[in-house]
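We read letters as residues; the integers encode the fold. Take this protein.
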Amino acid sequence: MIATNGQDYSHLPHLTEGDEDFRAKFLSWDLGDLTMTDVKEYLEHKDIVLVPVASLEQHGPHLPLYTDTVTAVHMSRRVAHMIAVLHTPPIWMGYSPQHMHEPGQGRGTITVRSSTLLAVMHDVARSLIHHGFNRIIFINGHGSNIKVVDPVLRKLRYETGALISFVKPYMERYTGILKGLMENPPDETPGWHASELETSQDLAWNERLVRMDRAEFTRAHIPEFLPKSFEKKDGMPDVEFEGYHYFNFPMDHHEFIESGVIGNPLRATKEKGEEAFRRLSEHVARGVLELMNVPVEVHNRAFVDRVL
């Protein structure tokens, strides 16, 4: 499991009032740190749990393979601390076939098939629902997981009646709540793979693991198998033709960016990473608080089909 790297969450604001006695009962908000007695006591008061899910994949020569999992774990821990809810250990493997490169190239990515990822997410959620959790909030740190998760989210909802949510607190093309924070102009893709945002967040998490001496600004380009009349500027599966984005192709990452870095990481700072985490975590925490008030009726709790 990804280590805490000395992260201290005590400075974060508590977004819930009057919960001091409840907070005092728990030494940690990580499910894995608790005893079964602690879990039972938690469920007497709250029925929500965060599940970080991400990937282990190459992020160029300067960022660790854990980068996407850092986002999911750190966001989950921050939100859990702010509103006194539990989170699970991370599902650290994700759907990353495009990051494997050719055999023997030593990129380090570990990918799982979509069916495997969906099965893991399903079984984790069904286990939690079995024990009494009614609200499962997946905190996602890896963009390509979005391509495949809809079936399992719907299956969990239809099977059980539980409240199921999938949150993606980062930016790629969508700037959202991080508007004005990144310095890179749009053509330097600040929210993309190992660019300004992810580098800043990794610096905020553990700057010792970031090799800024290896960081370079690189731009995405059209894969060689496509005509030059097409264009590509970021990591989305679509490409531009005549100024429009109607064409999608199953491309591998190294076909449109050799280094693994899409954009300019050279303007990254620890301070930007911390501010990005603050904005996103406070936003997600407020949303989760609202979801705690939604009526939920679980109609199928027992995880009977838990063997094969």
